[in-house]
Amino acid sequence: MPAKTVVFTNVRKFDGDKFRWISSGEYIQMSGRAGRRGIDARGICILMVDERMEPATAKMMLKGNADSLNSAFHLSYNMLLNQLRCEDADPESMLRNSFYQFQADRAIPDLEKQIKALEEERDSMIIEEEDSLKNYYNLIQQYKSLKNDARDIMFSPKYCLPYMKSGRPVCIKCIDDENSPSFTIEDPVTWGVLMDFHRVKSVLEEDANRRPEDGSYTLDILTRCVVSKDGVGKKKIKIVPLKEPGEPIVVSVPLSQVTSLSSARLNIPKDLLPLEARQNALKKLVEFISRYANGMPLEAEEMNIQSKSYKKAVGRLEALENQFEKHEIAKSPLVEQKLKVLNRKEELTAKIKSIKKTMRSSTALAFKDELKARKRVLRRLGYITSDDVVELKGKVACEISSADELTLTELMFSGVLKDVKPEEIVSLLSCFVWQEKIHDAAKPREELELLFTQLQDTAWRIAKVQLECKVQIDVESFVSSFRPDIMEAVYAWAKGSKFYEIMEITQVFEGSLIRAIRRLEEVLQQLISAAKSIGETELESKFEEAVSKIKRDIVFAASLYL
Amino acid sequence: MRGLKLPLNQTQRIRLQRAFEKLQTLSAKANSDASVTVADSIQVNYDDAFLKGHGTTDLNGELVATVCGVVERVNKLVYVRGLRARYKPEVGDIVVGRIVEVAQKRWRLEINFTQDAVLMLSSMNMPDGIQRRRTALDELNMRSIFEENDVVCAEVRNFQHDGSLQLQARSQKYGKLEKGQLLMIDPYLVKKSKQHFHHLEQFGVDLILGRNGFIWVGEHVEVRDSMMIDQANSAEQSAVPEEKSPAYTSLEMRQHICRIANAIRVLSTLGFIMDADLIMQTVELSSSLNINIHDMLGSEFHVLVAEREAERRSLMSKRKR
């Protein structure tokens, strides 16, 4: 819609969290609509400001940079097939001339400069007795990782869950994000009192049927913290050692942060809401710690850990500890600072390595390996011949661009769509267009469930083939990308239900559902032309019937104001 | 021998027969029982869901063929690949056609399809290589681009909803074909391959195997990419007057063209599916045996080609094993 004038009625917009200033990129995009091509010499942009605005904010908004434009190009089978069936189109030359390749090429001199600067910085760092220091450094790293291993075994939920009782003092790591990692053998630790523990609800719903041992847990721990508020108004809580000033607060801590448990338990009141109760509880804890300096840690034997790898790790830890004592550099002064410098140097080396790697991959043709792998998949599945000539199946997949072309084509050729009703087809296709994840969505009814399992089987098979052909793909996530969440709602819609009725069936947003149904219609149109190209008239008319069933009422209204 | 109309003497007849028998035994193993005629029922598992593709129909609960051809199966899809039919276009195919009509903003082309193909003025590159809207003036000048009876090469773009076929010629290599021969053979004899434009360098000849069975053999024309023209200095172009290529074709070139064309004719009469390699081999066979161009269409050369092909295919099948 061309416009001569653009009017901003507000300079703030809601971003789901709060009202924020419009960014310069947004301003450029919106005001850019002003002025009709060939008619207006200039476009007019009116900005209505009804509040105080700092000059700096205004300047940033009006004179700021546009959002940077980055290529999000990716290969798809549909694109590849369409390229292959034309005589002079060559996927490789297309890739070579792509904007993606252009951006990758342009970034190379910059990367080279970065490497040079980093290398200079690294070489300028000179450390005395570097070799022996490095030796010591490696020892520390080794010791830490071993200790972590041992800890992980000890605190795997299998062993430690029985000891997660409220009132038990626990030793936790103080994690500072600002400081670089320390180089002593001991980590800074503090104590807290365990109140409760929870399982972390993970994103995938299959976890529901996992055993309790496998989930990850967080602990609610009462300890001393410093609460700081930053400008945005978000609270930031930092755990500090007990002796430092701070408030007693119950924080949730991941299990991985716990270093040891005490074998004793303190008597802590249940109600910790009043500040006093919490302070008293902490006092008790301090008392306990001062009496038993090491907090009477639970030993592995007590916890009944019989894992072989644990014993091995402990044995090696002891050996390493001996080595530390013998190491001459440990006694030299300033070892701490030296180690810090060395650490920085190591980091730089790693960084140079990773930049070099990205440079190497961008000098080569982008997607070259992926292109090869994808062609291999197409050959394996019989979409193209060994001479890259598109076959019948490939022709069908060419038509489908709005959904996963391989899965849909395979589904069609396996005859699944042949003996089901149009409503069921629509319902099945909804899995292709629906991407959001809904928790605790109702399972579809039996016949739809059956169709969905067929879809999953097909998807599984295709993902396996892709993996065998060295396409980077995660089989599990590929299969679970087909979501059955709105099958029931779409089925009802195809059956002729009213929109408010189907909104009662699922808890999804109206807008997402409408978008999904519209995309569904697009996929159906592509399937019609696909069926036409293989000459299957029955299937074609079935798809047409499906289109007529879903294309009605509010979902396909051009505008809500009509 | 499929009604070959060749004056053969006794030995030639026997040799040809033997060659064909050899070819038959080689191909028989592939799928001998798959060939059907109209109204033959096709064996399928009726309990299972299957898709019926082109050339099949449902008759009283039985799957029958509606054309003569070979039954092909892809997963659950059953279809019949017809033999000796008119050309059935597919998107992306290269076709050669003859202009039959200059109409409103479009040309109509005869391409051996059930209806004439349409080449819109807007779906071809203008001779000056500039991308712009086509004006009324362009429309008036359409005859300066293609006239009736011109031979044109284009690519299948898409099918309209009413089933009519649209072509496009969006690159310099498509367009009018001059100084050469157009051969019309059965479309099924042209093998679908990655490349249908061939530049035979040793002869300086362009060979275009149109998927519709129209084959163009003509003098090589240098294809100039429109992108290259943009980059080249336009002033330079206007300064050097275009070198007028001679209005006639040299005798040698004409002989090359005829030899290649005759090779194609021979292969077509024998019913061999051809690609550029096979055509070139046939041409080489004829020149290595010092056979005159006009003798290529005689019975002796036919027999030779058939024997050669039988040998080649038996070698290939041996290699596969």
UniProtKB/TrEMBL annotation, chain A:
As one GO molecular function, the record gives: helicase activity
Q: Which GO terms describe its biological process?
A: maturation of 5.8S rRNA
The protein's UniProt keywords, in alphabetical order, are:
ATP-binding, Coiled coil, Helicase, Hydrolase, Nucleotide-binding
Q: Which residues form the ATP-dependent RNA helicase Ski2/MTR4 C-terminal domain?
A: 385-562
InterPro entries associated with the record: Beta-barrel_MTR4, MTR4-like_stalk, P-loop_NTPase, RNA-DNA_Helicase, Ski2/MTR4_C
Coiled-coil regions listed = 101-128
User: Does Phosphoprotein count among this protein's keywords?
Assistant: no
Q: Name one Pfam family in it.
A: DSHCT
Q: Does the keyword Hydrolase apply?
A: yes
Q: What is this protein called?
A: ATP-dependent RNA helicase Ski2/MTR4 C-terminal domain-containing protein
Instruction: Identify the PANTHER family for this entry.
Output: ATP-DEPENDENT RNA AND DNA HELICASE, DEXH-BOX ATP-DEPENDENT RNA HELICASE DEXH9
Cellular component annotations (GO), alphabetically ordered:
nucleus
Automatic annotation (TrEMBL), chain B:
Q: Name one GO molecular function term.
A: RNA binding
What SMART domains does this protein map onto? S1
CDD domains in the cross-refs: KH-I_Rrp4_eukar, S1_Rrp4
Keyword list (alphabetical) reads: Exosome, Nucleus, RNA-binding, rRNA processing
Location of the S1 motif domain: 90-170
Q: Where in the cell is it found?
A: Nucleus
A cellular component term from Gene Ontology for this protein is:
nucleolus
Say if the entry is tagged with keyword Hydrolase.
no
Known InterPro entries for this protein?
A: Exosome_RNA_bind1/RRP40/RRP4 (IPR026699), KH_dom_type_1 (IPR004088), KH_dom_type_1_sf (IPR036612), NA-bd_OB-fold (IPR012340), S1_domain (IPR003029), S1_RRP4 (IPR048565)
Where does the source fall among the domains of life? Eukaryota
Q: How far does the signal peptide extend, from start to end residue?
A: none
Query: What biological-process GO terms show up in the record?
Result: CUT catabolic process; exonucleolytic trimming to generate mature 3'-end of 5.8S rRNA from tricistronic rRNA transcript (SSU-rRNA, 5.8S rRNA, LSU-rRNA); negative regulation of post-transcriptional gene silencing; nuclear polyadenylation-dependent rRNA catabolic process; poly(A)-dependent snoRNA 3'-end processing; TRAMP-dependent tRNA surveillance pathway; U4 snRNA 3'-end processing
User: Would you identify the family this protein belongs to, as annotated?
Assistant: Belongs to the RRP4 family.
Q: What is this protein called?
A: S1 motif domain-containing protein
Q: In the record, what lineage is assigned to the organism producing the protein? A: Eukaryota, Viridiplantae, Streptophyta, Embryophyta, Tracheophyta
